[in-house]
Design brief:
Layout lengths: L1 H20 L17 E10 L2 E11 L4 E6 L14 E10 L4 E9 L6 E11 L2 E9 L5 E10 L4 H13 L1 H12 L3
Antiparallel strand pairs: 1-2, 1-8, 2-3, 3-4, 4-5, 5-6, 6-7, 7-8
């Protein structure tokens, strides 16, 4: 079932890539070119064979192994530089192979999701990531969750500014998250 879900997500995402990115500018390489995760990612949901819907869920992967899960209205990119990220989780990540990585979630708006999550991933191209993981519900039942992520388009200077903003304010985001949904 997992392989089928991963293949289905990959096929759908590949089919949608042309439509989604025809209006996007060329993407500059990340600050850390050895780590393809570094950058700002927006979750996307396949809605048809040739269309993705961006969600407000995002992740910023920092070069030092930290992740900020944030909410952003996808239509608010005009105000992105001033946007005060609204945190939904805080974690650390470690790439464990060319197809797996682990996020250790230390704070999450839903305590059920605190702890390590082992992802299986595949880059569909330089800006699309498909990942799946198995989640155990409180009742013990297990479900496979498939996520599709699209890397936000920035020139090198803009990307560095966003990564610096998140890195410089990471402790502030942790404090806000602790206040909002409990301490570590």
């Amino acid at each position: 079932m997992k392989k089928f879900m991963m293949m289905l997500a990959a096929v759908l995402c590949c089919a949608m890539t042309t439509t989604v990115f025809t209006s996007c500018e060329a993407y500059e390489k990340d600050t850390d070119s050895n780590n393809p995760f570094v950058g700002v990612w927006q979750q996307a949901i396949p809605v048809s064979e040739d269309q993705l819907l961006l969600t407000p869920n995002g992740k910023v992967f920092l070069p030092d192994g930290r992740v900020l899960g944030y909410y952003l209205n996808p239509v608010d990119y005009e105000n992105y530089e001033k946007f005060d990220f609204k945190t939904w989780f805080i974690s650390d990540y470690q790439i464990t192979s060319d197809s797996t990585y682990t996020e250790k979630v230390t704070l999450h708006e839903n305590p059920e999701w605190v702890g390590p999550i082992d992802f299986h991933y595949q880059f569909l191209n330089s800006r699309m990531l498909s990942a799946y993981y198995e989640h155990t519900n409180p009742d013990g039942s297990k479900i496979t969750i498939v996520d599709t992520w699209v890397k936000a388009v920035y020139d090198k200077k803009e990307l560095e500014a966003v990564l610096k903003k998140v890195s410089d304010n990471y402790d502030v985001y942790i404090k806000k998250a602790e206040n909002k949904f409990g301490s570590k």
